Amino acid sequence: MTQARPPAASWRDNLYVQYYLQQPPVTRTFLTGIAAVSLPPLFYLIKPVMLVNFWDFTVRGEIWRPLTALLYGGGGMELLFGVFFAYQYSMQLETLKFGDSTADYAYYFLFSWIDLMFMNYFIGNPVYFSALTLSLCTTAVLETPDQRTTLFGMIPLESRYLPYALLVLTFVTAGPQQTLAQATGFANAHVWRYLRETLPSSGGLNYLATPDWFKRLLGEGTYLSGAGTFAQGGVQRAYGQAFKPQQQATAPIRPSQGVGSNVTGLGSAGARSSGANTQTTTGRARFAGTGHTLGGE
């Protein structure tokens, strides 16, 4: 009697595939886009000049350029550190600040993309990745401005000053033009916060409220930070099951939630990387985890 063969393992059973699928949806899409745009030039499959946004070519039909300019992280160590930096703060924002609405975080990305294109048009900068990563950093640290952090594990400072420190490092390592381009991300984060949070809280209109059509397009998804769980509309999905928003606010935050506290650099096409270490605080419980700086203990 022939013994039946065990069922073939599904590709979803692969450890790396499972880890990839457990990432929150916007961050996962963001990292996939970075890989799809930044890796081909490393293998000489496409020239980097085809990925940056020169408006003269964009208006002639090369309409992919504004998007690839947002996702192109350069190469070498700048790409490695830039991806890690973008991943860390995108995870912190999506799982903690925007954890109750995937649509809200995706709308933040959409606004940032348009705003960065607008600002960089006037300074002639064709690459937006560095600015976007600093925007993510600034938006994150504005949630816990008094949190203690160290730059390179040596220089202590409050997290509110981290974007300024990174801009200074970019100025030293890459010059004023790259610093100006990167600073548009800093400006974008403050524009978003003012129009989305500060102005409405003082009785003004919320000009950046996520439109209903955008929520219908993406669904009312929520991400359970640290659990790889994505819920939509109170219905159990492949990622897990839904929970009430107030449960998220009261649930204990485990060290696995978020990405930890490692900040290794601000990668960008044409700029070197810098590093910092962000430590855990209590209070608003926005960030969790511990980490080590590049070259630290």
- Gyration radius (Cα, Å) is 20 Å
Kindly name the structural category.
alpha+beta
- What is the helical fraction, as a range of percent? 40-55%
Rounded average pLDDT: 78
Shape: globular
- Major sheet: 4 strands, antiparallel
Low-pLDDT segments: 224-265, 267-297
Total count of strands: 6
Number of helices: 11
Biggest sheet strand order reads 2-1-6-5
Report the order of strands and helices.
HHHHHHHEEHHHEEHEE
State which percent range the strand residues make up.
5-15%
Keywords: Endoplasmic reticulum, Membrane, Transmembrane, Transmembrane helix
Protein name: Derlin
Transmembrane segments: 29-46, 67-85, 105-123
Membrane topology: Multi-pass membrane protein
Question: Can you characterise this structure?
Answer:
With 297 residues, the protein is of the alpha+beta class. It has a domain at 74-278. The chain is 49% helix and 7% strand. It is built from eleven helices and six strands. The chain has helices at residues 15-21, 25-42, 55-58, 65-71, 76-97, 102-123, 129-141, 162-174, 176-201, 212-218, 245-250, and strands spanning 148-151, 155-158, 221-224, 229-232, 262-263, 276-278. A four-stranded antiparallel β-sheet has the order 2-1-6-5. The protein has a two-stranded antiparallel ribbon with strand order 3-4. A hairpin with a 4-residue loop joins strand 3 (221-224) and strand 4 (229-232). The protein is globular. The relative contact order is 0.16. The model is unreliable at 224-265 and 267-297 (pLDDT under 50).
Structure described in brief:
With about 300 residues, the protein is α+β, with helices and mostly antiparallel strands.
